[in-house]
Design goal:
Cyclophilin; 2 domains; Gyrase A, domain 2; 14 strands; alpha+beta; four-stranded antiparallel sheet
């Protein structure tokens, strides 16, 4: 069993490290502690930032100290009930695969010894846990991708990738929420906006939620794109048993 480490991060944060690998069970502990601190805050704690294998707990040094906070965090962790994370939220994301939307899907298929349709079927065949958000607002790092789709990143990253692009980078898959540089293999694009600063909740989902992709053709993509532009599209959210 991994020992939980409490590492001071400057003069106003403690990094609670639950392990050294990317693992759903470790991530579950992170979410449990983060949720607990949200429901029942510890005095002085100002923010919690989850990552793959740790939780950064920020605090106001005028209200609490590092050693005092670590003692309280240790006590809180011992009291956590991690038997169940409750009901999970699954965000169903439409994707138009291949063609102009996913110019690298042929390479991904060739690398895996699959057809492009098999790549699509595998990619849309499971729910992906959002381990953490980072890199860009709304960029979700998704875990547990089928090993057959593991594909190396581009040797020369692109200087610009369209917003909504769905890519594969090594063992991970994800959505580029904004136009940006990037080195992942692009297999499709979604018209849904993971990040919209004009929404009441700018980021569509949170760490601990799940994403399931489903394939649409270009005609359906354009219809959804138009609805999104008019703020008339609602991403379907389904429920399932939590992990």
């Amino acid at each position: 069993m991994n020992e939980t480490l409490f590492l001071p991060a400057g003069d106003s944060a403690v990094n609670v490290e639950f392990g050294r690998i990317i693992d759903p069970e470790i991530n579950k502990k992170i979410r449990s502690l983060s949720d607990s601190l949200s429901r029942k805050p510890i005095r002085g704690v100002t923010e919690c930032i989850p990552t793959f294998r740790s939780l950064l707990v920020c605090y106001d040094p005028l209200q609490t100290g590092c050693e005092v906070l670590i003692k309280k965090l240790k006590k809180r962790i011992k009291s956590l009930d991690q038997a169940s994370a409750g009901e999970k939220r699954v965000f169903n994301i439409p994707v138009c695969y291949g063609g102009e939307f996913g110019e690298d899907i042929a390479f991904v298929a060739s690398h895996a010894g699959l057809t492009e349709q098999e790549v699509i079927d595998i990619h849309t065949g499971r729910d992906y846990l959002i381990f953490m958000l980072g890199f860009l607002p709304g960029f979700a790092y998704l875990g547990d991708m089928d090993k057959r789709l593991h594909t190396p990143r581009l040797s020369n990253p692109r200087t610009s990738i369209p917003a909504g692009s769905v890519g594969i980078g090594g063992e991970q898959t994800g959505i580029y929420p904004l136009a940006s540089p990037g080195g992942w293999q692009l297999i499709g694009r979604t018209p849904v906006r993971p990040y919209d600063p004009n929404r009441a909740e700018p980021i569509l989902y949170s760490a601990g939620d799940y994403i399931r992709f489903f394939a649409v053709d270009e005609q359906e993509y354009r219809k959804i794109e138009e609805l999104v532009s008019r703020d008339e599209y609602e991403c379907k959210i389904t429920a399932g048993e939590g992990n």
